[in-house]
Structures are given as C-alpha cells and as structure tokens.
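Re: that backbone. Tokens:
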C-alpha cells in the first residue's frame, strides 16, 4: 500500500516546484529529501516506460537522501541544492554503483573509478544524484542518420510532449525528456554543438550551454576538447543558474577552467532581473536559421521577437553573420574525437577490454545486431586519423573554425551592430558559437498549435553568462510559457 503522505505529493504544484520552493519545503519539514527521491522514483517507474529517458537509478539514492536529511537537522543545508535530486547524462562519470557508457553497449558495466568533477561538485553541494539519463549514443558522433535520443543501451528516448510525434532533441535527450516529465528537479547535459540547446528547446526547458572553460570536462566521455562542455537543464532560469553556481568552479585537472578569472565565485542568481531586457540591443539572426522553421514555429518565434520589443529591447532585425553560409565541416571533431576518447578509455577498469576507439569499433562489429542498427561510419572515419593531432588538415580546420565563428562570425556581428546578444530559434544557430566556445541559453518561447515546444536562444561572447541569464530571465518571467506535458496522473 502506498504511503498516504507520499500520495499527497503527487500533484502538479510539487512536481513543477522550483528548486528554491523545494528547499523551503525541506527546511519547513513539509517533505524530506528521502520522500522527494521516492516521489521521483515512483513517477519514473510508472511513466518512463512511455518515453525511455532514464537508464538507471542510483541504488544508494534513498540512503544518501536519508543521510542528507539527518545532516540538515543537525547542521543545516550545505547549499540551495542540499537534498535535491538531480539526474546526470550517461557520459558523466560517477564513482559509485552506476554505469557510465555514453549509451554504448561496448562500455556496458563500466563503473567509473571516481566522480567526474561535475559529479563531485554536486555531491559536495548536497545534491542527490538520482540516476543516469539516456542519450544519443556517443553524443551523436557515431554515424550518419541516427535519430536523436537513440542508443544501443537505452533504445529510443521520446519527447513527452508528443511521444513518437515530436523530435526529442539530442544528444542530451534523456536529460531533456526526464526533466520535462518531472522525473527530477533538474539535470546535467553536455554539449559539443547543440546537444543541450536542442533537447532543452524541444522539451520546453531552460538549457545553458556555458562558455567552454567555465565548467570542468574532467571525467566526461568526450567528443572534442575544443567544444565540449557540461551544462544545466532545468524548468526555470533560476534553477539553471543555481546549478551553474555549483558547476562553474576551476578544476586544476582541466587547465582551461583556470583561464576564467571574471566569473570565479560568481552567484549567477544575482543577475535574475525581470527588467533585464530594457535598454539592450538584441540582433535577430534570421538568414538561414529562421528558414529551418515551419510556418507554425515561425509564428511562435515572431511573437517572441515582438515580446523582446515590448520588454524594452531594441531589436536589430535580420542581422547577418558573414560566415553563416561558409562551407563548414566536422573535421575538428573527427580528429579530436580519437585523441580525446582514447585518452578517456585508458582510465576505464581493466575487465572491460575496451582501451581505444578501435576496440569500440570491433566490439560493435562483433555485436552488430545489437550495436549497429544505424552503423558507425563516423567512428570509422575518426579511427582513420592518427590520433596525434599533428595533421595539417586538423590544424587548418581548427584555425578556420576559430576565425569564421569568431572574428568573421559572432564577434563581427556583435561589434558591427553594437549588440548585447544574438537570438536564434531553438538550437539552429548552435554550430557557430560552439566552434568558438561561446555561451548560449535557451528558454521556452511557446508551442505550435499541435503542442510542439519552441525555444528562443540567446547567444553572446565568451563568459557573458551573467548577461544571457539576465535576458533569458526577463523573457521567461514576462511570458511564462513553460507548461508540463500531459503524461497521465499517478494514482
């Protein structure tokens, strides 16, 4: 028989509660962290069979929550995340009983020997790591034509707003679908190019893709060191900012995090300003990016642009990024993937017998029925590189990416039009800032008549997260588009 106290928690007010609201209830004794974990576990057990977003639950989650409840009584909370259940994408190491596989059966039963820096920071803050979420296998760097949200380990993640009807977004698909469906308070995703912004916008969430270097990459299965970053996915801008406070800490094992001096120790919640759009100059990147939109999504975005004007922003419509139609390639990722993945695989436990990208490819070939539903063309292409990053083709591609995405890309437009930020629809403009490591934040912009979510994305220069959070919060508070998907009611 279900605990009647727990049954009363299965209501929209609690499920949609923001982190600070949950924290208040925990402090007042209205609910315990253990009960929160049980609530989310119950919801996952009953509803996730419809969307396949959670790969596994942390077997120690209830015990960790109980210990944190006791600590709260005796010493008080460690941080605003104390006792709050958080889900992690399946490429983020946790030094516990859970696996870290990047969705690949080649890494099945790989339990990391220690926490990633991100996981360690969350634990130190008192968060409960509830489980691991499904993802597009190898962060969608395995083959051409693989659907967003598919992995050989977890199958196909579906969008809770329209399972099997709307794209779930990738590659942090499970993190997006799970938080949209209220399976935890928030989640951590990772992005190389669009992999936070895409599932966040497709699942009516806030997603922050930080500047490369703001958040440590240590202990995260990589694609490419020049573009990879972890970041928060949450239902509100404030929740995402609270998570970023915990994640944005220098890590001596990831040198690029030591280069950031301006945002060290920043409390990103101080930039939550309802009037944050007043007096700003916002460029709208219509050319190419708005062309991807259906008429229904275009209508949503045009209304969002109108809201920006109503909220006091000076909108510079139809700004053109000079390199938008440049012949881009994935050469940098192809070369860096082998070098970075081989370095990661050298750290896995000996019993796996997977030490190189070549080992992964051979494992997939030997288990093709389960592992190669869509092939592995990109893995094979990456394996053909030296893995030493000495090829002139790689160095030239890297220089081109940095030049055309920065000096002849985002930097040019921002300077030419004296902009505070650039607006893109969904994740369609993610590629250019990704190549130069610049930050973006997406926030719900509305829904099509069929109910498919649409996101508005603000992009800025390196380490402009405070400004982007300010803009996104002002838009969010004025519009409040977020609504939960209709997945059913728990009995």
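Recovered sequence:
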């Amino acid at each position: 028989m279900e605990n009647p106290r727990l049954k009363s928690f299965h209501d929209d007010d609690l499920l949609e509660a923001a982190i600070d609201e949950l924290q208040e209830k925990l402090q007042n004794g209205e609910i315990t962290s253990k009960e929160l974990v049980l609530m989310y576990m119950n919801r996952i057990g009953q509803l996730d069979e419809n969307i396949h977003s959670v790969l596994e639950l942390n077997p120690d989650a209830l015990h960790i929550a109980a210990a944190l409840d006791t600590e709260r009584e005796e010493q008080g909370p460690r941080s605003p995340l104390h006792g709050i259940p958080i889900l992690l994408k399946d490429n983020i190491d946790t030094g516990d009983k859970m696996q870290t596989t990047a969705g690949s059966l080649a890494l099945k039963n790989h339990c990391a020997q220690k926490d990633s820096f991100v996981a360690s920071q969350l634990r130190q803050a008192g968060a409960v790591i509830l489980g691991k979420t499904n993802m597009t296998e190898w962060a969608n760097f395995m083959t051409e034509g693989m659907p967003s949200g598919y992995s050989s380990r977890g199958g196909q993640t579906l969008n809770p707003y329209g399972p099997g009807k709307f794209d779930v977004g990738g590659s942090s698909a499970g993190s997006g679908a799970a938080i949209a469906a209220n399976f935890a308070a928030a989640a951590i995703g990772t992005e190389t190019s669009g992999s936070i912004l895409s599932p966040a916008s497709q699942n009516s969430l806030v997603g922050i893709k930080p500047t490369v270097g703001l958040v440590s990459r240590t202990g995260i299965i990589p694609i490419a060191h020049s573009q990879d970053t972890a970041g928060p996915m949450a239902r509100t801008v404030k929740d995402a900012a609270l998570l970023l406070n915990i994640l944005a800490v220098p890590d001596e094992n990831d040198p690029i995090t030591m280069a950031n001096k301006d945002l060290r120790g920043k409390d990103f919640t101080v930039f939550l300003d309802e009037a944050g759009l007043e007096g700003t100059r916002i460029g709208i990147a219509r050319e190419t990016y708005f062309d991807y939109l259906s008429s229904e999504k275009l209508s949503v975005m045009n209304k969002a642009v109108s809201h920006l004007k109503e909220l006091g922003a000076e909108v510079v419509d139809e700004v053109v990024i000079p390199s938008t139609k440049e012949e881009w390639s994935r050469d940098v990722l192809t070369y860096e993937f082998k070098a970075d993945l081989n370095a990661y695989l050298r750290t896995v436990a000996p019993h796996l017998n997977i030490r190189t990208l070549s080992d992964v490819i051979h494992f997939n070939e030997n288990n093709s029925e389960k592992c190669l539903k869509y092939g592995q063309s990109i893995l094979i292409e990456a394996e053909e590189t030296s893995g030493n990053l000495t090829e002139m083709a790689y160095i030239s591609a890297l220089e081109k990416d940095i030049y055309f995405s920065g000096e002849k890309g985002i930097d040019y437009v921002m300077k030419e039009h004296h902009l505070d930020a650039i607006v893109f629809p969904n994740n369609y403009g993610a590629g250019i800032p990704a190549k130069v490591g610049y930050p973006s934040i997406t926030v719900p912009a509305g829904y099509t008549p069929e109910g498919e979510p649409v996101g508005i994305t603000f992009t800025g220069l390196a380490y402009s997260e405070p400004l982007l959070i300010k803009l996104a919060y002002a838009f969010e508070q004025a519009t409040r588009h977020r609504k939960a998907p209709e997945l059913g009611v728990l009995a």
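The longest helix spans residues 392-416. DSSP finds 17 helices and 13 strands in the chain.
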